Fold:
Amino acid sequence: MYNPKSTSATEFISDSEIRSTIEYARENCNNRALVDGVIEKARNFKGLSHREAALLLECSDPETVERIYSLANEIKHRFYGNRIVMFAPLYLSNYCVNGCVYCPYHAKNRTIRRKKLTQEEIRAEVIALQDMGHKRLALEAGEHPLKNPIEYILESIKTIYSIKHKNGAIRRVNVNIAATTVENYRRLRDAGIGTYILFQETYNKANYEALHPTGPKSDYAYHTEAMDRAMQGGIDDVGIGVLFGLDTYRYDFVGLLMHAEHLEATYGVGPHTISVPRLCQADDVDTADFKNAVPDDVFCKIVAVIRIAVPYTGMIISTRESAKSRERLLELGITQISGGSRTSVGGYVNEEAPEENSAQFDIADHRSLDEVVEWLLDLNHIPSFCTACYREGRTGDRFMTLLKNGQISNCCLPNALFTLKEYLKDYASPPVRAKGDAMIKRLLEDIPNDRARSKASEYLEKIEQGERDFRF
Structure:
């Protein structure tokens, strides 16, 4: 039975409810009055239920789809403006005991190069990332109780936060590691992580178990209930996602929104972020072996409807997607992107030869961080390296309350400009610096409060003179 407040995976992710929802959407997608009513409800910026969202996703009428896209863009700008948060993944180890058939880390793969970074190697990777201009990392590691125990993850986080190279500093470490215990989540919280991220891969239990034949990740309930344990361990910013292409997109779309509803209903705060990766080529994984590939037009609609259904969440797209795809998705709801990414272990210091590949997946956007920043500026987006809310304690329900009532915008624009200014001064090429400074000068006038505008001008001048790390 479907129960969003239950902490049992098969109750808050109900197979029968998902299938019923998909059927409802198919039967009613041409009911113009019903669809119009859902779109009008969404204009209240309070979100939609999984069933209402499924109805919009099923719509194929071109005029209706354009209305959905327009509304998604409006909602994104209402909550997040033109700001795009920048991050990079940092892969610590690709040793793994699981048998996931879609991931080259799987234990039976004998072609991928296995590697685990020492703390000194982590230091070199972090310095390389800082020298690009990054302030925010997503920590990644395979699941291996001996090679990658929680103690190794905690030591690595401590190392990362300790490194101050030139003007560089990693100010927020988000963590994407395997499902673990309440006690270990508590230890991650105490280590000062930002968001705990874990992808469900697919919410279809039968298919999940087929895709994960061996290893601890094969336990569907333990994996699906990980966010509950993270919340119970005191981590109040969590990020969810699925790997589109493993199951039908309709099934996983509905399951994803049900998971968001569960977190909101049970803990009073929904997901801090939702990630929408698509299955892609990787070492011994061939996408042709999977029959549920999601075409670009459907993928765009998925992103837009998630934005409408969960208006407050940050939405993440990685370098799995091409520059062209990412440009379109930025207009439909995406608020965070990676730049200059490497998905191999040690890839920021040493580019690997193909025969020494240790990457989790092939990337499609190979541009440097500076090139991505310039691209965003040209598109009139604000590249933001901001970590202020996390460092000021604006997390969990405190962050969501400020976001939902619009008050967070009083901080977000100035803080984005401060971190952009830091990037321009310390790392940008001359053409990018010129474009960025012009944007800052223009947007400074958009800060409505006179006192805040004056203080922002003061901080920007101090950054110009060499001081760092100002925030509202």
